[in-house]
Amino acid sequence: MQTTANLNLRSAPSTSGQKLATMPKGTRLSVTATRSGWSQVRYSGKTGWASSTYLRTVSRAIKTGELGKTTARLTLRQKASSTSTALATVPKSGIYTVKKISGGYARITSRGKTGWVQGKYLSIVAKKPGREIYIDQKYTSNRAGLTDRYWTKVSGGDLYESVNGKKRIADIPRNSVVYRDAKMEKTAGSVKGWIFVRTQGMSGWMKTSQLSRTSRAHTTPGKYSAKQVRAQKNGKIPERMLVAISWDKEKTLIAAPALKDLNRLNTAFKKKFGHNLDIDLAYRTRATQEAYWEELGPYVAARPGTSNHGWGTAIDVPETYGYSFRGKYYKWLKANSKKYNWVHRKILEEGSPYAEAWHFEYTGR
Q1: How far is the C-alpha of 148 from the C-alpha of 120, rounded, in Å?
Q2: Residues 248 and 262: beta-carbon distance below 8 Å
């Protein structure tokens, strides 16, 4: 609300209430309660009552069940109070469903933790479709449990933050796997000719005109050497040097010279466990690396331009128990992958601040 005149703040909802302060005309206030023509507000460190006659609505407060977008980095608290225990930090620009309102606080769930944030920092998400939406979940995999699969059919595919909005990634290679997220698409507001997807481990909007239901990528190693691939700019490998992993259901793209030894590694893995090696991600473009760096930070993402993923000479397996430091798949890969020119580096071992059980790199020529 906003005051339309110089307005007294009183200790009680009555003209007989003690005068606590005078609020200048144009002062913006958040109303936490109303009673018989009076509004409870907080001004200059004091909580009191002001006549509702001299208040006009500037913006409607968010309500239970609505989607709110955080306009600042917030503290998620155990109770609806500024002195309550802090549970976590909620990032700016996240979109959350408001489960309850109490005393100017909104109850939300962020990264699996439910608590309270100051409601005045939640703006109501516009009702227009195709909006930006924040995926509030810990990174797990490229597909994140999704099954509706597409592949890009253009060179340099685009991933947008919102329909016709800012491009998040603009260099996705032809034949990259894409998963449609129908649930998030509905939440963000469906738009004809667009779908909300997860690709390259990132989420956003893509034009359906850039997508196909089949991959047309080559699945043979080809004539290129690892030296030739590494001579290219990181994250900008020519598509002719990329091939699909034939036995992988996602037809993940990888540097052509790395495929032969990966096939050998998979043959041994399948002989041991009875199924193919699971691949999550391999080649990452420069724009994808920059998006990872911004969202995940240096302890999870490599500095853009330095990752072996940028040459297509690294793979990530899923972050599941079997591939964890305690898992049987990881233990076998750690012991045997070197025979096939694939290694798990010491800096990634358990106990390191850069620990990653899922990351293996190609060392062949």
Answers
A1: 38
A2: no
Biggest alpha carbon–alpha carbon distance for the chain: 90
Distance of CA 38 to the CA centre of its chain: 43
CB 214: neighbour CB atoms within 10 A?
Answer: 11
Tokens 């155990």, located at residue: 78
- The torsion defined by the Cα of 338, 139, 211 and 362, in degrees rounded to 10, comes to -10
* CA pair distance 200, 159, nearest whole angstrom: 10
DSSP symbol at 270: H
**Could you tell me which residue, 122 or 294, shows the higher pLDDT?**
122
Question: 123 near 68, Cβ under 8 Å?
Answer: yes
**What is the pTM (predicted TM-score) of this model?**
0.68
CA angle 333, 309, 315 (to 5 degrees): 25
CA 19, 24, 27, 32: dihedral to nearest 10 degrees?
10
**For the segment 18-70, what is each residue's pLDDT rounded down to a tens digit?**
999 999 998 988 888 888 889 999 998 899 999 999 998 776 778 887 778 88
Per-residue tokens: 289? 């690396």
DSSP assigned state of 63? -
Residue 182, sorted as left (phi over 0), alpha (psi -120 to 50) or beta, turns out to be alpha
Alpha helices in the chain (DSSP H): 182-188, 226-230, 256-273, 286-296, 328-336
**Using an 8 Å Cβ cutoff, are 119 and 105 in contact?**
yes
